[in-house]
Amino acid sequence: MNPLPQPVSINLFVFFIWIFVGALGYPLLQKRETLLKPLALLLSIGSILLAYSAFLSLLSGTDYRFTVEGGLPGLLFHLHLDPLSSFFLLILGGAGTGVLLFSGGSLHAMSPRKKPGFFLNLSFFMASMEGVFLADDAYLFMIFWEAMALFSTFLVLTDRDRSEVRDAGYLYLLMAHFGSLLIMMGFFFLASREPSGQVQFLESLTFNAMATSTPSTGLSFLIFLLVLLGFGAKAGLIPLHVWLPRAHPAAPTPASALLSGIMLKTALYGIIRLLFGLLGLDHLSATWGIPLLLTGGLMALFGILHALLQSNPKKLLAYSSIENIGILFLGVGLAILYFKSGHPVAGEIALGAVLYHAINHAFFKTLLFLGAGTIIHASRTNDLNAMGGLLRRMPVSGGLVLAGILFASGLPPGNGFVSEWLLLQSTLQAWILSNTLFRSAVLLGAALLVLASALSAMGFVKFFGIGYLGIPRSEEAGKAHEVSFLELTGMGWLAGGCLLLAALPLTLLKGINHVIRSLTGHVFPDTLLSGGWIWIRPISAHGASYSPPLLLALLLAALPLPWVLLRLLRKPSTRTSPAWGCGYSVRTPRMQDTADAFGQPIRHFFPFFFAMKRRIPAPDEKDPLLELSVEDPHWPYLFRPLLRLFVRFSELADRVRTGRISVYLVYSFVTLLFLLSVLRWM
Amino acid sequence: MFLLSILLSPLIGAFVMGFVGHTKAASRLNILFSFLTFGATFLLAWNVFANGPLVGLDEQLFADGFSAIFIVLTGGIGATTSLFSHRYMAIEKSRGHLTGEKQRLYLSLYQVFLLTMLVVLVSNNLGLLWVSLEGATLTTVLLVAWSRTPESVKAAWKYFILCGVGIAQALFGTILLYFASEKTLGPGGTALLWTHLAAVKHTLEPTVIGLAFVFFIVGYGTKVGLVPLHNWLPDAHAEGPAPISAVLSGLLLNVALYAILRIKVLADGSLHNPLTAHLLMGFGLLSVLLGSLSMWKRQDIKRLFAYSSIEHMGLATFAFGLGGPMGSFAGLLHMTAHSLIKSSIFFVVGHIVQTSGSQKIPEIRDVALRTPSLARALLIGGLAVTGIPPFAIFASEFLILSVAVRRAPWSLPLLLLAIIVTFGVLYFRIQEMNGESGRSLSFPNEKPKITFYPIWIHFGLAFLIGLFFTHELGRLYGLALHSIGLTNG
Amino acid sequence: MDVGDPLFRTEFAVDVVDLFLAILTAPLLSGWIGTCRAVLSNRTPAGVFQPFWDLLRLFRKEVILPEHTSFLFRAVPFGVFGILSVSALFIPLLNIRPLLGPVADVVVLIGLFSLVRMLMAFGAMDAGTPFGDLGARREMMVGFLAEPATLMILFTVSLWSGSTSLSRIIQSLLSSSDPVHPSLMFALMAYILVFLAENGRLPIDNPATHLELTMIHEAMILEYSGPLLGMMEWSAHLKLFLYLLIGIDFFFPAGLPAELSPPAVILGIFLLIGKLMAAGTALAIVEILFAKLRIFRVPEFTALAYLLASIGFLIHFVLEV
Amino acid sequence: MAPHPHLLANHLVGMLGSALLLSAFANLAMRRLTSLVRIFALQGLLLTASTLAVAILSSETHLLFSALFTFIFKVVLLPTILFRLMNRLHIQGEVESLVNVPSTMVIGLGIVVFSFTLAAPISELASTVSKGLIGVGLASLLLSFLMMITRRKALTQLLGFLGMENALFFSAINATYGMPMVVELGVAFDVLVGTFVFGIFFFQIRETFESLDLKHMDSSSLE
After folding, report:
1. Distance (Å, rounded) from C-alpha B118 to C-alpha B45?
2. Taking the mean position of all CA atoms in its chain, how far away is CA C99?
3. Does residue C229 lie within any of the structural domains?
4. Are A577 and A283 spatial neighbours (Cβ–Cβ below 8 Å)?
């Protein structure tokens, strides 16, 4: 056997580090809690190594397959490191490092009873995500996929003494399992040629064999649907998203950051791997892009609208993740549509934008979740309405979160903007499509996309404005203090990553070019990559362009200029005084806006996105109380009816149980007679 | 005489237990005998895999690769269960639920039960197979009724009547089979010997064989717990002592399915139509569906897992119905996996019931708080039994579904529904049991010493099988299936 | 183009002039509008230069910071002013090919305006007063539909050049021979609505009001004082100016100098002043004619803009390609 | 071709089969427990006779042993045990039926027709003297099954169970000249053990429920 290429061996090494440290950490932490910090540092070192090696292998376009002993007879464990896996490993390692560093500082607050288990699950969770990206056959993929689901569930269930946490974990696990089954079906249909023997049968389940399969159009569509729904369950595809806003907030902070920031990307990985890699562009159809695109757009809108109504910061961020996943789906649909209508350039831009947005989202969403965790911890509540004034008390972490907010809102010069910009450029290529339906769909997608991203800015203003600004709305919030150094390091790492992604997108786009080439055989147009590290010119040399580093430089230069001028001319004297209160001197924190007030116009304007119950008190009531509850409409209109249906079915099935022996004997008797008559007369 | 030797140990054991079963050391002696049996079965299997099938006692006994797998499984689980039952009974005893007499009855019947199952597995004579399966039924009837509570008597009675009637149908099937084979093989000794039948299976009269197979599947199917013949199963599992539930679910159901499969091979040779496949798939699917749908309403933890057994036996049956090299392989793997996991779950459940003093799920609370290791074991059992990788049931379900995609895609919606429902319900219940308590604990101050070896051995094996089902082992399985012709079709 | 190139030097010079022109002209435009309004409502106008005097006065005053604010409160005015000045670099005033034009296209521009909005909202909320929050919330409410509407308008316009680069758009509009395009008509209508909404003009917001409960923009800057307030005010002028400039560039590009020859530039300057004054007058007329909308009608107003822009977008694809 | 000299024996076997079927019907119709046990003994006698007849016809010697066993087991031993059980447990009187007798009989008639139709193609294959009797065996089996379904006392269930066993034995003898000896012995042993188990049960049921009525054996709750 040849020696493994360096990135591969680093990958395996990191995998074993995570497994080993996790397994070893469990008993160690039971004995000595203080070991947590060094152990978490060990995990993060692994993570940094992973990011480093993934970055190298992505840029060099490493493509290496190998097998490991194990698995089923005739189906060894197949592993594969290609640009696509490298890219997602980079996400895992890059964003993971920040979270792991943070957890080294934040976990000290966790109860000692939960610490070892949490640590174990955390490291195994990381390892299983790595496995998902490396697996190259259906069996191994499913093992890692389910392991990932499982360990993440355990992470969610860390505070399982609270019933809402248990419910969230349960719902999540159920959805995850449902998704896994569909994914499994997708694999099987991809490999569904009847081979001759056991060995051939199992070999057809390797990704390599699946990539060469030639399913019919109908079958391809079935596979497409299965893949979409299967991975959609993990990604939070509407209507399978209901677990997401429950599970992500229920988990301890590092876990929710990983779930939202990184794990959702595994679903994207799966979709891209199965649709573009295994099913192949040849078996896709342009028309299928439309539902994907529109679902993505609606999902983005739905997600952000709900985000705007949340008063739990983590819930807000979870819904915002749904929005971002919607954007990713939209991009994938767009890519399919363009590729299959014969416009690879626009398709590449869309796919590239999707990948870029994936890594952006990973960085800023983990950062924001960590931030949300710090304020929840600092103010001892998960209600934005009891926070406020935290930026003064936690200036460094607050500043980092502010940076994250700007990055996440899809505004220049942030990193989120780069990917949204690319995606918009791709939608604006709609004029090259000859089919009016396709065009209209793309434009509708674009319209939804810009609407959603504008709303997301509003959502983040709510998050930051209510949480960090103003005056404290509760006593605890007033007593908040800055988080520990390790936590800041973790958040700083993520913010730094965002900044790099924002300033130097071209470097990574070169890597993404390898990914797209290995998946579709197409490469980015020369103009995109010829801009050095300064210019992004996606379509042509004279078309639209954007230069993130220059813009950043200009802004950095322009911001302090007036300040300097002001200082030079005349240093203004400064004093502090109470804020204006219409002439009244009483000013309580309750006079500030609430988080719910921020959502009010949204509720008012988009009522059909919510299942609302409102009770307005009658004028003569003694204790007038306005009651308002807002719910995800999928609960009352989809899932609860489904649940009722299931209960009805199981009651029906239970009618078989009469408890009377005679009736049971009749069953046997009738079965026998029935079979005999069938045998005799058919 | 390998074949006899595996029977010897339980036989002697049964007698010894009959005499000294009430003494203090008897339980340890039981472990000794069970492990001796396990050793013998292991050697036998080794021999079979190394040197080919064994025939003995005037061709009445016989073991090939297929039976060897079941023999080892029976021996192994019989041994670990004896380990578990030692601790289980010790706890019962410490609470005054166990007299010496009862212990003697229990231990000797336990050995007899092992004996009858091993006889089923090594008998070449289909009549003898019937006899010993009936013997196993009778033994377990007594074991189910062992605690003498009204509920257990009821359950045993139900079990006795339903299985008695069922197995009578199987006897009629045997008669029909004999009737058909006698024409080729001539009257007398050899016409019921499986080895001879297999050699001439193509010449057997299809009309009769078809009829016979229906009687067999209704008869032995009752013992497998195929819906709608399954109604004895939940009660028997729920009311018997936990070790017995474990071996019922882990072994007896397997052995009954083993019998059906032996007949299926013969019937397939004669019939030239997919009758057996269709019957197995039909029964299997029905069991899977009803088994999973019935779980929601269950309030009794053992009953809950009994329905899970119905579901899993249905799945295995379905897999054999799918047939082909992979279908049968998956079915056999599923049986192996289910035996290991379900018996272990019953170990866990047994201890949980002992520590919480009730079998009713709403009354079982705080397991995680009271005995974290039990809660962990229950959780892992739940994971393993619902097909979470890398436990072996995942591997088999993976394969079953992949074969179903190719051979019976129409069945997929039903299978998936059943799998997800099972998963959902089981977790719901497990979570419920870990939840807050609504009532005070029955044995608040008592911390029974629980043995986890058998539990972890089973789970560990299931884990390893799922993760490293080596090529070598796979070859053995493949050979075993191929040699008896289950890979055709 | 390399740095030593004389053309480069000329362009650079023009760009710098453009920038300072924009920054300095902006208060003048506001002054002009104010004058028009005063004249139209039979008041004595304060004069075109009044905004300058106001700014000067503000810069002389001391800074009064409300209690409980963080560093963000002080940073926001600088950020807002800086971002808007940078944006001015990308919008052609006279030179339709600004040197730094390729750095940002229309999407980036709109993004920068949103960034300004967001920062102002943060500044407003930091003081923790009911009015700041209220203003911020209302501003975001106006923005969440106005921003996509703006983007859709720009997309519609950009479809003419197949590019979102401002210079490209203007060039292709200049060279276009068709006098009227239905899609552009829709876009123009939408643009007018968005313009009113984005710049806090009637009927969305009354820039002249100081009645707390009806304010939007004024509520946001209520706690600012002295030079900080001055910068906020100046930024508001600048934003109005830039928005108007974009509209002129897109919908009335005629007369922009195609190349930087002195006669063309001089003609361009006069034309531009004419256009700005005309637009200012029009705005003043609109403000005189309309009453302020109820706050809940505002999203409907901006949604109308969004829909008009989207229709224009679609019409272009269906009818004009 | 049935050999000519055996025609009489052949007829005899047929007669005995019919009698067995009749007794199975009688089981369905009888209301008194003691008569049921007597019918069981009668069935045993019929079985013995038919086994003897087949033994003579086929000159299979081992069938003679079977006949002897049958006689001892089913005519002497089991009825005695049953009668003693009834005495010990003080069981007497009417047997309650879940379905009334005429309906049961009609169902039984349907079953007989069904069994004969089902067995028709098989009977044509039979090379033994007693062809056509498989249908009789099947019918008796199903009738006993029916009896188990419709009767509600524990003892009647036992009798139904034993009736099934008789039907099986009859089929075995007539279709195939009896099963191999090992099997027959095994079956007989199982039946004996089964009866003992039944016996044990009777006492346990009496102990726990103070009645042998099967309605107690139905699960009270649906759990």
Report:
1. 13
2. 21
3. yes
4. no
Residue A107 lies in a domain: no
In Å, how far are A186, B440, C152, C160 from C107, measured between CA atoms?
A: 39, 66, 10, 16
Where is the domain boundary, A507, A527, A547?
A527
% of chain C residues with pLDDT over 70: 94
Residue pair B164/B179 in contact (Cβ under 8 Å)? The answer is no
The verdict on D129 touching B (C-beta cutoff 8 Å) is: no
> Which of C68, C145, C147 comes nearest A471 by C-beta?
C68
Distance CA D152, CA D211 (A): 12
Q: Is residue A648 part of a domain?
A: yes
Which residue of D lies nearest to A680 if distances are taken between CA atoms? D118
Give the position of tokens 């039981």: B30
Strand segments (E) across A259-303: none
Contact B153 D205 (CB under 8 A): yes
pTM of the model: 0.93
**Cβ separation of A660 and D145 shorter than 8 Å?**
no
Question: Could you count the other beta carbons within 10 Å of the beta carbon of residue D106?
Answer: 11
**Where do the domains of chain D lie?**
4-216
Which of A468, A500, A527 lies at the terminal end of a domain, its last residue? A527
D118:A676 CB<8 A: yes
Q: What is the DSSP string of A356-380?
A: HHHHHHHHHHHHHHHHHHHHHHHHT
Here the tokens at position B224 are 């497998």
Backbone dihedral region for residue D93 (phi beyond 0: left; psi -120 to 50: alpha; all else: beta): left
- The span from the CA of B192 to the CA of B188, in Å, is 9
C263 lies in which domain range? 6-320
Taking the C-alpha atoms of residue D100 and residue C258, their distance in angstroms, rounded to an integer, is: 108
**How many Cβ atoms sit within 10 Å of the Cβ of residue B189?**
17
Cα–Cα distance measured from residue D222 to residue A622, given in angstroms and rounded to the nearest whole number = 50
| Matching residue, tokens 């005053």 | C61
Task: Find tokens 């029976």 and name the residue.
Answer: B74
Three-class DSSP category at B395: helix
Taking an 8 Å cut-off on Cβ atoms, the answer to whether D222 and A654 are in contact is yes
A652 with A506, same domain: the answer is no
Measured at the CA of A335, the angle between CA A332 and CA A336, to 5 degrees, comes to 90
Domain count across chain A: 2
Q: Please report whether residue C1 resides in a domain.
A: no
The answer to whether position C40 is within a domain reads yes
- Across the interface, of A543, A573, A576, the residue whose CB is closest to C163 is A543
Instruction: Give pLDDT tens digits for A403-432.
Output: 999 999 888 888 999 999 999 999 888 888
Asked if residue B80 lies in contact with residue B456, where contact means CB atoms within 8 angstroms, the answer is no
Together in a domain, A326 and A471? yes
- Cβ neighbours of A678 in D, within 8 Å: none
- Tell me: the pLDDT tens digits for A291-341? 999 999 999 999 999 999 998 999 999 999 999 999 999 999 999 999 999
Work out the average pLDDT over D139-157: 85
Domain with A664, as residue range(s), is 638-681
d(CA A265, CA A91): 9
Residues A339 and A458 in one domain: yes
Number of domains in chain C: 1
Distance from CA of D161 to the nearest CA of B (A): 7
State how far Cα A337 lies from the chain centre: 23
Give Cβ neighbours of residue C179 (< 8 Å, ≥ 6 apart): none
Q: What are phi and psi of B306, to 5 degrees?
A: -65, -40
pLDDT at residue A198, rounded to an integer: 59
d(CA D146, nearest CA chain B) in Å? 11
State yes or no: ipTM above 0.85: yes
Domain match, A438 and A313 both? yes
In chain D, the residue whose alpha carbon lies closest to the alpha carbon of B138 is D194
pLDDT tens readout for residues B161-192? 899 889 889 999 998 888 888 877 876 667 88
Task: Test D220 with A661 for CB contact under 8 angstroms.
Answer: no
